[in-house]
Amino acid sequence: MIRTLALLLLLGPAQDKRKIPPPGVPVPEADRSELEAGLKELSRETDPDVRIFHKAVDWALRYDEILSPKEITTAKALLKDGQARARQLREGKPSWTTAAGLVVRAYVSRIDGSVQPYGLVIPPTYKHGTKTRLDFWLHGRSETLTELAFVSGRQKSAGDFTPPDTIVCHLYGRFCNASKFAGEVDLFETLDHLRKQYTIDEDRISVRGFSMGGASTWHLGAHHAGLWACVAPGAGFAETAVYAGLYKDPVKPTEWEEKLWHWYNATDYAANLFNTSVVAYSGEDDPQKAAADTMAKSMKDEGMEMVHVIGPKVKHQYEPGAKKEVARLVDEKAVKGRDPNPRKVRFTTWTLQYNQMRWVSVDALEKHWERARVEAEIESGAVKATTQNVAAVSFAHAGKTVLDGQDFAGGGRFHKVNGKWSPGPMDEGLRKRHGLQGPVDDAFMDTFIFVTPGGKSENPKVDAWVAVEEPRAAEFWRRIMRGEARVVKDDAVTEAEIASSNLILWGDPSANKVLSRIADRLPIRWESKEIKVGAKVFPAGNHLPVLIYPNPLNPKRYVVLNSGFTWQENAHLSNARHVPILPDWAVLDLDKPNTLHMSERVAAAGFFDEEWKLR
Asked: What structural domains and CATH numbers belong to the chain?
């Protein structure tokens, strides 16, 4: 029975048959031996700027990702580049750290310890210590853009736009995910790394991209609008349902899936673009122009007119004249820069994942996945603000405050008590807050560890689930998010790991020692015979709970039961489909095969309330 279920699980969802990246070409034995020898020489290097050359070649060779005969030559060249950097480090003369022109750099991600690359165009005028404009460029979709291809490409091409006196940073974005999830974190980890290496003008940072990179730009631009001098998307989708045709799928979206579309729909965050400047581009005949038109409507609904440059008589490309106009307009906005001290801030969000806009922070919501708003303005030294669906808020300006008509003499932090505002922060009890708000997929946007059970489950079907789903989650993470999940046995988890990491617990309480320690402190009770979700009871023999919850051993971090990122079965489809499939908790029917869509295997699911209690 276990082997039968495991086989069904291993087959995976029916649509998940195209491998990304695609299978590689055969590598002749002589070339393989030469590459392996070069990798061995680089294997002891620890500097990320060297390690990225090792990773690019190692992964391509080890995971069958040398995708053409030309990439064998590319791999050999990258090994020589890595070896040259290693020699320079030993001599104390790393030339690339001060070089102008095309430079490949890398950092180590806190999420999984992986080395992640980014490419730079450093202007010849750059001087360390002089604040310099920074433009992020977000690439289009390419299912062949492994680290090998990306690093090589960034050594050869400066890209579409190279403004004078500007550092241009080409993000890898963890491959091909439209800057979502770990791909979103990539921008901020890259920015943190850049700040340590170069002198960045914080008021002249822009984000731009084309095609999938345009989608990335819409998302990052709208969700983090307060960071940017300019947001310049070219083509690219802006929302999930219509673009991806999800309402046309045979399996209709569930209520919780529709709520979770509010995580990444740029249209839902259009009001935030009040806090920056937007220069959008579309080809006149490009079907993806519809996305920009949708954003234009969403901005107009919020009282804003979108600057939209149209390339005449072209489809999915920049028209030369229009490209010059885009460059002129973006340069104009970047030279002006963002206002360092804006008098007025407008902010909307649906989740505490996005809780800040300039000098306004939303610290608690009344209800997640419903629209929240803050409109705040400084008048005569006082903050005047109105809110919607906000339970706690902070203002960096701590003087007199008028909040939803209530007057306060001072204090920058406020919370609601029985529907009325009171000064001071909300209590420190267990509740949803920024970085601790769910859903399941949120656990994979920060440091996480897979905790493998050391024993057998009371239910053989759970063992079958773990035997297939844990390695498959790790494999999807490697292929799609370009890192290797840390895996620790349940009896080897340290206090330091509990303090620093989200723990992904596989198995049931009888098999996983960490889960056994906390099982009686979780809101869903998993007992030997039944699973209790409030008043609902499910037989444990053929059901499995999946959930995210603050770790009872360290409430500043998550525990997740029996799940990797929930959208893995759609990873090969449109990037608009890279959205969560499960909410905060779900009970899965293990008698239903994994060839079904995830939502079809759900017996029950829902969100915890703002205090992490069952609704």
From this structure: 17-90 (no CATH), 99-336 (3.40.50.1820), 356-423 (no CATH), 440-606 (no CATH)
